[in-house]
Design goal:
elongated, four-stranded mixed sheet, alpha/beta, binds uridine-diphosphate-N-acetylglucosamine, 438 residues, 15 helices, 32% helix
Length: 438
């Protein structure tokens, strides 16, 4: 087990104690994107050799993916330049339940294992805090490439037909996604690049994290056309080579710090980000009354005073991301006016609503719609969330609330925000990480 994983587990029960009510001001550098790093790490399995991935954020989730790769026999080390993944020694095709249950994105190894070795045994991830989150599209994609799938003792057991010349025995296919899925697109793409023949994959996800995965695969020698569009054409190749790549900046982390600026009536700048990836979030912040300026890879937000109520609907990229929904709901709780927030991606992703209500927010949830009536102010309270972005929303609320807010179970935050307490402190927040004694 890597050191970072052990340390993260030990600290997982810590809490954040926030003394709110002061405007945040200053500048923070955005980390590499968790949701980009995870599939890039899995993609290393496709080509034996040493890959270098830079700007991988130090998070519980990237540590979990390291453990998944190590369980498969890969050797992973971090140094000053980044993460080095050596996949020459890959010796197993099993991603165990103990790891997959802590991070659904472990399923990203399914496609690469099947494509390179013709076999994979990957635990089913199970449900999650905000609903069932099925993996049927990942499975259907592999079946379309010719794999046989069985479910055995909670594991997806995938077997490719042998003897067609492709390294793993998969064959090119046509696959039309019935709904857009980031993870299933990534998995199918990673499998198709080593299949024999052509794959036409339509209605694919075009989130920047998937575009970067496609770019990494091309750098490894894959033949993919249509990158950045919803229609990908993949010409299978016989082998791929190791590569080096820098993870794109985390658009959700950047958006979270900007929302913290809006929420605390502050003035926050995020550096080393890609503003084009943030467009929908920036528009939402502007609709809520903030002023946003972009200068190269730097985005600055100046609060225009108390936020304004504004409606919001989540959608696939380039629409407003579901991963920013909770944070913008926090902003809406103190807005002047009413905001209707609809999540069209996940229909039950409102775990933050009852916790925000404990701080004085007025939120009514009906199905996948939340109506938030803005209040003058929030009051600090002990709160706890059951998922990553919900926890982020509680931190934002705590930063704006009067008095003390204690956010417990911050292992959720450790999954997705690198050095959160330190970065908030750089913006002038009074925030302290403590061992949770309750
Ligand atoms: C990824 C992100 C997550 C983000 C989500 C939506 C990572 C590691 N996680 O998750 O932070 O919230 O995209 O932007 O990148 N679905 C099915 N069957 C499947 C797969 C998905 O029905 O086999 C459904 C889901 O339940 C959901 C929708 O498709 O309603 C979109 O999910 P998907 O894009 O697959 O999300 P993830 O890749 O799991």
């Amino acid at each position: 087990m890597s050191d970072i994983a052990t340390a993260t587990e030990k600290q997982g029960m810590d809490c954040l104690v926030i003394h709110g009510g002061r405007p945040l001001a200053g500048s923070v550098e955005v980390s590499g994107a968790k949701n980009a790093a995870l599939p890039l790490m899995a993609a290393t399995l496709l080509a034996p050799g040493e890959h270098v991935i830079t700007r991988v954020p130090r998070l519980a989730d990237t540590a979990t993916m390291v453990r998944v790769l190590e369980a498969l026999g890969a050797k992973v080390r971090w140094d000053a330049t980044g993460m080095h993944v050596d996949t020459r020694s890959t010796s197993s095709v099993e991603a165990p339940y103990e790891l997959v249950k802590t991070m659904r994105a472990s399923i990203y190894v399914l496609g690469p294992l099947l494509a390179r070795f013709g076999r994979a045994r990957v635990s089913l991830p199970g449900g999650c805090a905000w609903g069932p989150r099925p993996v049927d599209l990942h499975i259907k994609g592999m079946e379309a490439l010719g794999a046989t799938i069985e479910i055995d003792e909670g594991y997806i057991v995938a077997t490719a037909p042998q003897g067609n010349g492709a390294p793993g025995g998969l064959r090119g296919t046509r696959f039309d996604f019935p709904i857009s899925s980031v993870g299933a697109t990534g998995n199918l793409l990673m499998a198709a690049v080593l299949a024999r023949g052509t794959s036409e994959i339509t209605n694919v996800a075009i989130e920047p994290e998937i575009t970067q995965l496609a770019e990494m695969l091309v750098a490894m020698g894959a033949q993919i056309e249509g990158i950045g569009t919803t229609h990908l054409t993949v010409e299978g190749v016989e082998s791929l080579s190791p590569t080096s790549i820098e993870v794109i900046p985390d658009r959700i982390e950047a958006g979270t710090y900007l929302a913290a600026g809006a929420m605390t009536l502050g003035d926050v700048t995020v550096t080393r980000c890609r503003p084009a990836h943030l467009a929908a979030t920036l528009q939402a912040l502007e609709r809520a009354g903030s002023r946003v300026t972009i200068d190269g890879s730097t985005v600055s937000l100046q609060s225009g005073g108390r936020p304004r109520g504004a409606d919001l609907v989540t959608a696939v990229f380039p629409g407003f991301p579901t991963d920013m929904q909770a944070q913008m709901m926090a902003v809406a709780t103190i807005a002047d006016g009413t905001s209707t927030i609809t999540d069209t991606i996940y229909h039950d992703r409102f775990a933050h609503a009852p916790e925000l209500a404990r701080m004085g927010a007025d939120i009514r949830v009906d199905g996948n719609v939340a109506v938030v009536v803005g209040r003058d102010r929030l009051k600090g309270a002990p709160v706890m969330a059951t998922d990553l972005r919900a926890s982020a929303a509680l931190v934002l609320a705590g930063l704006a609330a009067e008095g003390e807010t204690r956010v417990s179970r911050i292992y959720h935050l450790d999954r997705g925000y690198e050095a959160l307490a330190e970065k908030l402190a750089m913006l002038g927040a009074q925030v302290e990480r403590r061992a949770d004694t309750e």
